[in-house]
Design brief:
Elements: E1 5-10, E2 15-19, E3 26-27, E4 35-40, E5 44-49, E6 54-58, E7 66-78, E8 82-84, E9 95-96, E10 116-118, E11 123-124, E12 127-128, E13 131-132, E14 139-141, E15 158-169, E16 176-177, E17 189-195, E18 207-213, E19 218-224, E20 233-237, E21 243-248, E22 254-258, E23 263-267, E24 278-282, E25 291-296, E26 301-305, E27 309-314, E28 325-338, E29 344-348, E30 354-358, E31 369-372, H1 386-392, H2 431-437, H3 476-479, E32 485-487, H4 500-507, E33 517-519, E34 534-538, H5 567-590, E35 598-609, E36 617-628, E37 634-644, E38 647-654, E39 660-664, E40 670-675, H6 677-682, E41 686-690, H7 693-711, E42 722-726, E43 731-734, E44 754-757, E45 763-766, E46 772-775, E47 781-784, E48 804-821, E49 825-827, E50 838-839, E51 860-861, E52 866-868, E53 881-883, E54 900-915, E55 917-920, E56 925-930, E57 944-948, E58 953-957, E59 968-972, E60 978-983, E61 988-993, E62 998-1002, E63 1010-1012, E64 1020-1025, E65 1030-1034, E66 1039-1043, E67 1054-1059, E68 1062-1067, E69 1073-1077, E70 1080-1081, E71 1086-1087, E72 1090-1095, E73 1106-1109, ...
Antiparallel strand pairs: 1-2, 1-34, 2-3, 4-5, 5-6, 6-16, 7-8, 7-9, 7-15, 10-15, 11-15, 12-13, 14-15, 17-18, 18-19, 19-20, 21-22, 22-23, 23-24, 25-26, 26-27, 27-28, 28-29, 29-30, 30-31, 32-33, 35-36, 35-41, 36-37, 37-38, 39-40, 40-41, 42-43, 42-74, 43-44, 45-46, 46-47, 47-55, 48-49, 48-50, ...
GO molecular function, one term: lipid binding
Keywords: Autophagy, Cytoplasmic vesicle, Lipid-binding, Lysosome, Membrane, Repeat
Pfam family, one: Pex24p
């Protein structure tokens, strides 16, 4: 981890820096005056001094900050003088910029501030486009402006040359005042925040500096980048109210606090508009207490209210800068700052110490606990004593350390209660005067006012001082010697003579006393061992990795911690502890050996989407109770405890009834759903939201393992498994039972158990040999490696080998819409009834380039917005599609009746995860199919066909059970591009072309394609072939069955409509039919993307009879082409059979599951 700096300011206005590799605060001794606040980035630090001016401290580096000034000298040829500075009245200036529009003589260039210096004088640039010019550096052209050449020609009437001069920034590692702009000066500043370096990479080192004036106005510093660290000018930003504090993150997050206690969020910040466009108001975390401070990072927001409570904003990310809700955190702070990697620092309101938030990771942004940074400052005197080690070493790192006064000299005397220090909790211009005024004579303290204090009066010249009762001083009878105290002043304490006994007592005691009192004769205003009081901290340039061990948390402040423990004592302690633990274990275990089961409970707090209306998220307590019986079988129960009209109730579900655990796509919450058979029928799962992504993944992994244990499912999926993917890209697998296809009582689809497999895919296909292929959203092919787990599954829930890193890239699309009018032509001014001028495909939702975000926080942008020309219907040269009105059928050329047009913009985002998948380079694919085999197939090389993303048909060579990835591709020629393909059990290949027509061919490469007419007025989009059945889905969601398919006539005769609202179809090796259906109505809700099973499919009735609805919605793909288990044959008892032979359907089902079919 590279070394970086944490910056802080104490209450005396002195600036310190702490290195991530150091153990001491280093004071910046070059500051000309006291600094009130600082804001740091990696390359520099900005500060506000007590005169309300802005200062800049640029860190020194091997690469100097140099800026190139340039101007052009222009001349024209005339017959008398030749080339001279006598230009035509219409020509450009004699000395100008490159465009010729701005007058730039050499003497007009001035240094921006005293922090710059010239490296040399002006000189002529004698290079032109990388090649040396002739003498004096002139380049020639016919006229202004034109194309210049280094060679003079007969028609060269004008010429120019470039003059260069460099200036260097010299104020490195010093505080330099930012010069005021020449126009109207902004108000004096009271707060400042720097960030925005992740908005754009060009120009290099670009920063956004936001400032707040004393009148509540917000200003933006423009033009800050590497070659111009001071920036150019201040620009005022309009506001909805008066601002008191502002915070800017590394990216596009900018939050501010209003005077009334509300918060505002800057929206519209982008590469082209770093200032943003508008403000959005966010209410204070507490309705009764307003906010006083806010701090933002990459994807986090922290706030402090007037009562010093700390709050964390939930759901903040790049596409939701306002977040979703506040979470109260432990601790009381006066201010908080967020640095790199979203690490958090704060200053405690109790002791004014700097605290670091431990446990902050990308998956748990709120962290775990506050820990004090307890390192000394340079200049602190070394001090070590037994009393300090015993008294203060354990107090420094506590969350709320108490303050102590000097202990009595007599150990037998009882120690008085330590008074709490009076510390101002608001950092402002008057914080020093407040410290002074709190210790004025005659102003008693509210916390400590001992009546036994004796006030001694003397003159300052005699070395005495007036002691105040507010200082918490012990009486002479308690301390044994009169101690002398002084009020805090802005100046260093003058050396004064004090009794030796008083100095001895003060140095032998750990003093974390009040900030307004200190013993005399100290070089440091705090005292040698007194806790420093901080006013501000900034970690914007501090790069702390979540796994890096810092050296900031020693056990004491410059104190000895040696307890003098010998190795012999350590060994004796270990032996004693081991004997005690062994005796305790034996005692506790023996008393409970007669119990038949053990119970393990895990609890947590979540949010639950309640079942009754109005539906909303409510806070609940979530508990998982697991128990194991005497035979080792495991089971458990889920409990959700909630309040219903102040009455405590609970909802429960047995682990062995849970059928699936699904992460749900949500832009503001970390949500997952729990399904049971009853909940599947209702289409209303149990939806829960965790506070962090890590917490959600922990619960999902734990619940998944518990469900698998209760069902006895372990290890990788079987070869017969059914695979599916959700619209989110998650992969699920289910182990089919032999009775899944049994007649007349198959296993209901809603009772199937699905478990998640790591990875991210759009399409997955398999067969019964165990070969599984998948295709990502970026068209990259992946082969299954035989492992299990991956992703958020860790430990026993994941295999240790065959897990690889997997990436996926998908495109996000938005549409730019325009309407034609007779005056201006096509413009973005539509009718009041028109769709948004920037929208999604439906036109119902506004989607601009700025506010459109990746699908979820797991995705990150990897490209900029570009025009997409690969749109159905074609486009013109600029990407536009034309139509008569919105919405309509679009085409790629303009006609007389086209009054609207649109074009699609695309932007790519990327996701990185792990799973049992290995990449198959190099050809990107759009579809894949594998030959469905019998359960006991002896086939060595398995046919695998695919379609590239360009529409080419490919056949994979060398695919076997041992080498599922194959060896190479064989191209199969076609007359037009294809989009879907499927191979049947008899090796017949069916495909769908991009124009919606169907084709058939045998698997022999020598065969040719036969065109199959599509259903009337329908365009097909997907096909699936089984043993004898061929099913297709058209673009309108209709499912079609191909009639008349026989070995003698494999093309079939006609299409028969089976169902509508179908998204995908999968036909298995036994002609099983499964689909992904839309608009499935449950008893509680309507779902889209539901797994459905066709019932009644038999050799004599291949079309089946009805649908059995399974898991959903949100599913996008399913394949049953690996399930080749023959269903058990069941003979139903007839009415003439003897009575003992009668069996109920329930007993029949149980017999099927146990594997003993009836009547065989």
């Amino acid at each position: 981890m590279p070394v970086s700096l944490l910056w802080a300011v104490d209450v005396y206005g002195r600036v310190y820096s702490l290195s991530t590799a150091g153990q001491q605060w280093e004071q910046c001794r070059d500051a000309q005056m006291e600094i009130k606040r600082v804001t740091a980035v990696q390359q520099c630090c900005w500060g506000i001094a007590c005169d309300n001016s802005i200062y800049l401290n640029v860190h020194a580096s091997d690469l100097p900050v140099r800026y190139q000034e340039e101007t052009y000298e222009n001349q024209r040829w005339n017959p008398v003088d030749g080339f001279s500075d006598r230009l035509l009245p219409s020509d450009r200036w004699q000395w100008s910029d490159i465009t010729g529009l701005q007058h730039q003589p050499l003497d007009s260039f001035q240094l921006p501030s005293s922090s710059w210096e010239w490296e040399g004088d002006w000189y002529v640039d004698e290079n032109f486009e990388g090649e040396p010019t002739e003498k004096e550096g002139w380049t020639y052209a016919i006229d202004f402006p034109a194309n210049y050449t280094k060679d003079k020609r007969w028609n060269s009437c004008v010429r120019r040359r470039r003059w260069l001069r460099y200036r260097r920034y010299k104020a490195m590692d010093t505080w330099a005042k930012i010069p005021s702009q020449q126009t109207t000066l902004p108000d004096p500043f009271s707060d400042i925040s720097c960030g925005g370096w992740e908005i754009s990479e060009e120009p290099r080192g670009r920063l956004s500096l936001w400032a707040v004036s004393l009148q509540g106005k917000v200003w933006f510093r423009d033009g800050i980048y590497h070659h111009n660290p001071e920036g150019s000018l201040w620009e005022e930003v309009p506001l909805p109210g008066e601002v008191v504090q502002i915070s800017c993150g590394p990216g596009d997050l900018v939050w501010a606090v209003l005077w009334e206690g509300q918060l505002i969020v800057r929206e519209g910040i982008s590469r082209d508009c770093p200032k943003g466009t508008s403000w959005a108001v966010v209410e204070s975390p507490s309705p009764d207490v307003g906010a006083t401070h806010v701090a933002v990072g990459v994807s986090v927001v922290w706030a402090v209210t007037k009562d010093s409570k700390v709050w964390f904003r939930r759901g903040v990310n790049s596409h939701n800068p306002c977040g979703s809700g506040w979470i109260s955190m432990v601790g009381e702070m006066i201010m908080i700052n967020v640095g790199l990697n979203d690490q958090v620092w704060g200053i405690s309101s109790e002791d004014r110490g700097v605290y670091f938030r431990q446990g902050v990771t990308s998956s748990e942004l709120s962290g775990k606990t506050w820990k004090a940074i307890s390192v000394p400052r340079d200049g602190d005197r070394s001090h070590s004593s037994k009393g300090s080690a015993d008294g203060a070493s354990c107090l420094v790192t506590s969350a709320s350390p108490e303050s102590f006064v000097d202990a009595p000299s007599d150990p037998s005397d009882p120690a008085p209660d330590p008074p709490k220090p009076r510390i101002p909790k608001v950092t402002s211009d008057s914080f020093i005067s407040e410290l002074v005024s709190d210790r004025e004579p005659g102003k008693p303290s509210k916390e400590v006012a001992p009546p036994a204090v004796v006030e001694e009066e003397s003159t300052a010249g005699e070395g005495g001082v007036r002691s105040s009762s507010a200082g918490g001083v012990l009486s002479p009878s308690q301390s044994g010697a009169p101690l002398e105290w002084s009020n805090v002043d802005l100046e260093e304490a003058q050396g004064q003579q004090v009794p030796a006994g008083a100095v001895q007592d003060s140095t032998d005691t750990c003093s974390l006393s009040s900030v307004a009192t200190y013993t005399l004769a100290m070089e440091d205003p705090y005292g040698a061992d007194e806790h420093p009081l901080w006013a501000w901290v900034s970690g914007g340039g501090c790069n702390v990795d979540s796994h890096y061990q810092l050296n900031w948390f020693n056990c004491s402040l410059n104190m000895s911690c040696d307890l003098s423990v010998t190795p012999a004592q350590t060994a004796a302690w270990r032996k004693q502890i081991f004997e005690q633990l062994s005796e305790r274990t034996k005692r506790e275990m023996d008393n409970f050996r007669h119990y038949e089961q053990s119970v393990w409970v895990k609890k947590g707090t979540m949010q639950w989407w309640r079942d009754w209306k109005p539906h909303k998220w409510i806070d609940v307590h979530f508990a998982l109770e697991q128990f194991s019986g005497p035979e080792g079988n495991k089971d458990g129960i889920l409990f959700i405890y909630y309040n219903f009209y102040e009455e405590k109730k609970y909802l429960h579900a047995f682990i062995n009834e849970v059928t699936i655990l699904v992460p749900v796509l949500n832009d503001s919450k970390h949500t997952f759903a729990i399904y049971t058979p009853e909940r599947t029928k209702q289409r209303w799962p149990i939806r829960l939201a965790a506070a962090t992504e890590l917490e959600m993944h922990d619960w999902l992994a734990l619940l998944s393992v518990s469900c698998c244990d209760s069902r006895g499912i372990h290890g990788p999926p079987s070869k017969q498994a059914i695979w599916s993917t959700t619209c989110k890209g998650d992969i699920f697998v289910s182990e089919p039972s032999p009775a899944l296809e049994a007649m007349p009582y198959p296993t209901p689809s809603d009772q199937m158990f699905w478990r998640q497999v790591g990875g991210h895919l759009r399409v997955v296909e398999c067969n019964s040999v165990g070969i599984v292929w998948g295709i990502g959203y970026d068209h990259i092919a992946w082969a299954y490696t035989g492992g299990y787990g991956g992703g958020f599954f860790q430990g026993l829930a994941s295999s240790t080998d065959n897990i690889y890193t997997q990436t996926d890239v998908k495109s996000v699309y938005i549409y730019e819409n325009q309407r034609w009018n007779p005056v201006t032509g096509y413009t973005n001014r539509g009718l009041p009834t028109d769709r948004y001028m920037w929208s999604d495909a439906s036109g119902l939702h506004e989607c601009t380039k700025t506010n459109t975000k990746p699908p979820s926080p797991q995705w990150t942008w990897v490209s900029d917005w570009v025009i997409d020309y690969s749109v159905s219907g074609g486009t013109d040269r600029e990407g536009w599609q034309y139509a008569a009105d919105f919405p309509a059928s679009y085409h790629g050329h303009k006609t007389m009746k086209d009054f609207v047009r649109r074009r699609r913009w695309a932007r790519k985002c990327k996701l990185t995860t792990t799973g049992p998948w290995q990449e198959i380079p190099p050809i990107p694919l759009s579809d894949v199919t594998i030959l469905p085999c019998a359960a006991q197939s002896s086939m060595e090389v398995v046919p695998l066909w695919a379609i590239s993303n360009k529409g080419d048909v490919l056949c994979r060579l060398g695919v076997t059970a041992l080498t599922p990835a194959g060896s190479s591709w064989l191209h199969v020629g076609t007359d037009q591009p294809f989009k879907s393909i499927s191979i049947g059990a008899a090796r017949q290949v069916w495909a769908i072309a991009r124009d919606g027509s169907a084709f058939y061919r045998g698997s022999n490469p020598g065969y040719c394609w036969y065109h199959i007419p599509s259903p009337s007025k329908q365009k097909l989009k997907q096909v699936s072939v089984g043993r004898t059945s061929v099913y297709t889905v058209d673009e309108n969601g209709n499912l079609w069955y191909r009639q008349g398919v026989a070995p003698s006539y494999p093309q079939g005769s006609s299409w028969e409509h089976i169902s509508n609202n179908v998204r995908k179809v999968s036909v298995g090796p036994l002609d099983q039919v499964w689909i992904i259906a839309d608009k499935v109505q449950g008893s509680h809700s309507l779902s889209c993307g539901t797994v459905c099973h066709r019932l009644g499919v038999q050799p004599m009735e291949p079309k089946g009879q009805s649908w059995d609805y399974g898991i959903g919605g949100g599913w996008d793909h399913i394949t049953v082409r690996g399930n080749s288990m023959e269903p058990p044959r069941i003979r139903l008892p007839s009415l003439t059979d003897p009575l003992p032979a009668l069996q109920s359907p329930i007993s029949v089902r149980n017999t099927e599951v146990n594997g003993n079919p009836v009547g065989c």
